[in-house]
Amino acid sequence: MARVALDGRRITDWPSFHRESQAAFGFPAYYGANLDAWVDCLSGVRDGDGMSGFALGPGEMLEIELQHADVLRSKTPRILETLEALIDAANERITDAGQKPGLRLIET
């Protein structure tokens, strides 16, 4: 099982969310730093499309560990809510392609 960590203390606004995501997930240099691009990059985690630093096998999950989720929830709850929705959107694309969901959020 693959795992990546995002530090909720370092996410204070949308630009920092995208910077942290790009670094943690290995998004390409041309990553658009918007919500659609985030979903695009992570919906191909099993395709080996190079849009992230992960290439999952069939049935494998990428666990997204949101460290210090309580800090993010208290400072910018909208970002946390949106992250949950983004994961759902990426998983929906993955299942639409006939595969099992590939992303799971773990708050620590």
What does this structure look like?
This protein is an alpha/beta fold and 108 residues long. It has helices at 14-25, 35-42, 69-75, 77-96, and strands spanning 2-7, 62-67, 103-107. The chain has a 3-stranded parallel β-sheet with strand order 1-2-3, with helices on one face. The chain is globular, with a radius of gyration of 13 Å. The two termini are 18 Å apart. The mean pLDDT is 95.
List keywords for this structure.
3-stranded parallel beta sheet, globular, Barnase, Chain D, alpha/beta
**What is the 3D form?**
globular
CATH class call? Alpha Beta
Decide which structural class fits the backbone. alpha/beta
The amount of beta strand, in percent, is 15-25%
Pick out the low-confidence regions.
none
Helix content: 40-55%
The largest sheet, given as strand count, sense and whether it forms a barrel, is: 3 strands, parallel
